Amino acid sequence: MSDDNMSITERLTHVAARANAMSETVNAQMGVINAAMQSAETKFDNYIGGARAELSHILLSNNQQMEPNDNGTAIKGFNTISLQQFEVTKEATIYAAPANDTDHTNRGVAQDFRNNVFNGYVNGAFNIVRIKWKRNSSDHPARLDNNWNTRYQQGALSSACYIKLISGSVGGSMQPIKEYGNGWKLMGYRQKADNTAKPFYAPHSKLALSDSALEEGEALICLFGTVSGYVDFEKVGWGVYPEFAKPSDISIATSQLSAQG
Question: Which strand (E) or helix (H) includes residue 15?
Answer without folding.
Answer: helix 8-54
